[in-house]
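Quick question, first post here. What does this chain look like in 3D?
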Amino acid sequence: MKKDFVIQITRIVAMFMIIICHLVQEFDNRYIQMTSQFFNVGVFIFILISGYLYGTKKIENPKEWLKNRFFKIMIPVYVFMIFIFGWEILVQHHFKIKYVLIYLFDLQFVFGGVQGAQHLWFLTVIMICYMITPILYQKKEKLLKHSKIILVIIAALAVGFSYIKEDIGRTFMYLLLYISAYVYRNNKTDKQSSKIWLILSIMGLFAVRIVARKFWDGTVLYNTIVVCLTQILLAYHIYWLLNEIFKNVKIEGNALVNHFDTISYYVYITHMMFMTGPVRTMGMTENMFINSIVTIGLAWITGVLLYRISKGIMRGSI
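> Answer (accepted):
Ran it through. Tokens below.
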């Protein structure tokens, strides 16, 4: 299958943004740490890409499709967690069996995770998105016909549930992004109007975020509602910007791009164990630049290793 170069670049950018988001939080500088709020948009970009890509996928057998999606994202996690749990038992001498069940059934967003793997909450969310995808496919005609109303309803649910339980509110925010990207991919109208809307909205995006933070920081209104909605908009802006830059670039089978695109998910899985534990390298020296280079390098090496092991398992041999 021919790969979409813009999507590849966007996925790579999202991966690096997530790594940088976690990286800057390790610096002893308030202003550097604050940039993590921007780089966190990498998670939203991943969701946007998923909704956009599956917008044109045919799903003839929903059960088989969901099973394939589950094992595609979870086999690397199972391999990774064997290492994490093994390290906890042999080196740290503490282990809780409940976390085996949590990661086995991809429930870490609901029940929390362990050090070095807490960022995998995202996989619970993306699996929820996958679970509704067959329904979106089956009801695609009605979805596209009433997309504006449906998206407004989801947004309203997201806001409402945020005041009841923030995690549920955030889940609806992620669904809002995923479904809107699914709709966007299937929108046959001229995309130029969407581009104009994006250009106009960016002018108020940062202003809203700054003002809301000043007056409502620490509240549900800011922490969940304003942050999530502005991150959704920012994710669209970044995708559109990258599309404008690379849409006319004619590069077939670029080895470097293909490599980082292929291992992006696996590096995402492994990078956190070098930042917060259990194999923490961000505190190995007093030089944060050296620590950062070593950490990123190890994340890349272990990401490649995890990719090869996982692919071997999925093919029936390692």
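Residues 5-186+193-309 form one domain.
The chain has one domain: 5-186+193-309.
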